[in-house]
Amino acid sequence: MTALSHRVLVLGLGFAIAGSPLGIANGPLRFSPFPAQAQPSSPTPPPQPLQSNPLFQIRQNSKMGFINRSGQTIIPPQYDDGHAFSEGLAVAQSGEKYGYINPQGQWVIKPQFELAEDFSEGLAAAMINDQLGYINSSGQWVIKPQFFLVGPFSEGMARVLIGKKYGFINRQGQVVIPAQYNLAHDFADGLAKVQLNGRVGFINKAGQAVIAPQFYEASPFQEGLAAVETNQKWRYIQPNGQFAHTTQFDRAWAFSEGLGLVRIGLKYGFINKAGQIVIPPKFDRAGSFSEGKAWVTVGKQQGYINKAGAFVISPRFDEASNFNQGLALIKSGGKAGYVNPSGQIVWQSP
After folding, report:
1. 266 conformational bin, left if phi > 0, alpha if psi -120 to 50, beta if neither
2. What are the residues whose beta carbons fall under 8 Å from the beta carbon of 2, sequence distance 6 or more?
3. pLDDT tens for each residue of 126-172
4. What is the greatest pairwise CA distance in the chain?
5. Would you say 4 and 147 are in contact if contact means Cβ atoms under 8 Å apart?
6. How far apart are CA 284 and CA 84, in angstroms?
7. Which terminus of the chain has fewer Cβ atoms in its 10 Å neighbourhood, N or C?
8. Nearest 10 degrees: CA dihedral of 276, 289, 191, 183?
């Protein structure tokens, strides 16, 4: 993860789950690190149809390249660092500078930035002279560099640090929600999680407090519900601030593909939106569902289950992550690799 990834994501660090890095499993798939705890602190992107020719990051001899879903090398490892493809372009590092390449490995935006981030809604954060702004897919500045910390665009708005407070800008760079929050999160389902005076609530795009800051912690809204912590227990609320049901958990995460990841005692399982347990809490760790599967830990090994709770890929990996466009990043025997839905490792590092 590049330094900018850290600076961009640091806007949400106050909402991270202890021991769990942001941007894993349910966020943008980075080549490393691997998920280590039940996790989702970032909203799960809406389900996307499988692309016909997606590319996946690999690293060999300290260089980054890309393979296809079959494990064939499409862009030979040649870049010093970079990210996965997003909106048709991928961040790539050459020497001390960052630019963007296309799926043929050609520079579309030449390396010129001190740091660079993925495209989101047609714009990407980039840094010049230690200041962050946003460029379009042609590499032109749409919002001039002027911020120290920023977030990606989500639902037409991006969170930024102004002074010591966080607010939101629109695609023209205008501040549309004044910087007044101690922490802020991306908009999801029309609401953004914010923190004031040590409590978490939600605002709408007009900056109005739809749910006043009152919770110790919360997940973003996703699929119409958000998990919130109150009185040392976790429950789910609706966008109007009302509790969805009376069921409580020791920990809960955002819904994904109709199921919510919860912890009861020290074990992880899944519930439906009525608060009923669908997959009993019997796993040592777990991630949310993606492409019909969720990684779970049994003992020291990780595998994948389906929505019936049955293993579709037996626990045999040291570490695992969510499926994304038909492959999942895994680690086994000290080697990184990708596994397909049939459980076959299509690529593994030397």
Report:
1. alpha
2. 81, 83, 91, 93, 98, 115, 116, 117
3. 999 999 999 999 999 999 999 999 999 999 999 999 999 999 999 99
4. 55
5. no
6. 29
7. C
8. 110
